[in-house]
Amino acid sequence: MKIPKLKKNQLILIKFLDIEEDPSWMPEAKAMEKPDCEGIGVGMYLHHDKDWLYVSTQLVGTKKPQRNKTSYPLGCVMKIKKLYWKK
User: Fold this and answer.
1) For 58-83, b where at least 16 C-beta lie within 10 A, e where not — what string?
2) Residues in contact with 54: Cβ distance below 8 Å, sequence separation at least 6, in sequence order
3) At CA 66, angle to CA 84 and CA 73, rounded to 5?
4) What is the predicted pLDDT for the residue at 47?
5) Which of 1, 7, 41, 59 is the most exposed place for a label (fewest CB within 10 A)?
6) CA 14 to chain centre
7) Which among 19, 21, 14 has a CA at the least distance from the CA of 72?
8) Where are the beta strands (DSSP E) in the chain?
9) pLDDT, averaged across the chain
10) Do residues 83 and 11 touch, judged by C-beta distance below 8 A?
11) What is the pTM (predicted TM-score) of this model?
12) What Cα–Cα distance (Å) separates residue 22 from each residue in 18, 19, 27, 37?
């Protein structure tokens, strides 16, 4: 997937494929069905490389802010949409 031009801390929405597991016993035909496991995440863009998209969902503190990090494998990212808000 081609990453749009983003600035650090740009608010984005990420549509991604997730892992699906069903631990119950079932016929093989049912096990071969395509899972419906799409997720949506929102966060502040940090950076990306050839394999990963890095996003922060929380930023705390004012003088020396600290943040968390969520890492999305680019092979699972289906869409990225820029979001905007007014301060």
Assistant:
1) eeeeeeeeeeeeeebeeebbeebeee
2) 45, 46, 47, 48, 69, 70, 71, 72
3) 65
4) 97
5) 7
6) 5
7) 14
8) 11-17, 38-48, 52-56, 59-60, 66-67, 70-73, 77-82
9) 93
10) yes
11) 0.84
12) 13, 10, 12, 12
Euclidean distance between CA atoms 71 and 82, whole angstroms: 17
DSSP for residue 50: S
Find where tokens 């969520």 sit. Answer: 70
- From residue 41, alpha-carbon distances to 25, 26, 70, 75, 87 in Å are 31, 31, 10, 15, 21
What's the full length of the chain, in residues?
Answer: 87
- Can you tell me whether residue 76 is helix, strand or coil? helix
Give the dihedral sign, CA 74/16/18/42. positive
Please give the structure tokens belonging to residue 29: 């035909």
Structure tokens at 32: 């071969």
Task: Find the mean pLDDT for residues 24-49.
Answer: 93
Phi–psi pair at 47, nearest 5 degrees: -170, 175
Residue in the structure block whose two tokens are 């096990």: 31
